[in-house]
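Protein jagunal homolog 1 (Crotophaga sulcirostris), 183 aa
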Amino acid sequence: MASRGGPRAAGTDGSDFQHRERVASHYQMSVTLKSEIKKLIYMHVVIWLLLLAQMCVGHLKLLPHDQVAMPYQWEYPYMLSILPSLLGLLSFPRNNISYLVLSMISTGLFSVAPLIYGAMEMFPMAQQLYRHGKAYRFIFGFSAVSVMYLVVVVAAQVHGWQLYYSKKLLDSWFTSTQEKKKK
């Protein structure tokens, strides 16, 4: 090997040990998955802010009800869905498994469950809209049930991918924990 300022060892240019400078795959996976989960959390925050804005406009009567309808019942418990995202973000700096597990469980409870309830709550109104063409609630001229079903579909995908990547991240963290225990 070469010293910092001195000559190199004879017969080497110093690049013969680069294969040992690779980062372990579970560490690479961890960084990649954290990045993906952060993107999904940011998308969730955008959806959450849009629903919060709709709720505020509806309750404070800033616009007439024919422009922005009052919120559906499922939207109120969905407002708690910001908590799992914050727990997920808190788990990243020190790879805190407990926070990530709590985030995954509470995502199911505060995010996915209200979305399922919302799909069931709005189903009769959607059925009436598509069978008879009658809508009674509107959001800027669009049928509120159509807009909210679109929100439910997008949010379900965001939370589904968030849970999937969180599970993969959890597996990655367990792999690194197991390797540390072996040493």
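The chain is about 70% helix and 0% strand. The chain has one domain: 37-182. ok done for today
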